[in-house]
Amino acid sequence: MRMERNLGMDLVRATEAAALRSGRWMGRGDKIGADKAAVDAMRFSLDSVPMNGVVVIGEGEKDEAPMLFHGERVGNGDGPELDVAVDPVEGTTLLAEGMPGAIAVVAVGERNSFYNWQGLAYMDKLAVGERARGVVDINAPVAYNIRAVARTLNKQVEDVTVVVLDRPRHKDLIRQIRETGARIKLILHGDVSAGIMTAIENPPADILMGIGGAPEAVITACALKCLGGEIQCKVWPRNDEERQHAVDMQIDLEQIYTTKDLAQGENIYIAATGITPGEFLRGVEYFGGGARTHSVVMRSRSGTIRYIDATHRWDKLMRISNMPYG
Question: Does the pTM exceed 0.90?
Answer without folding.
Answer: yes
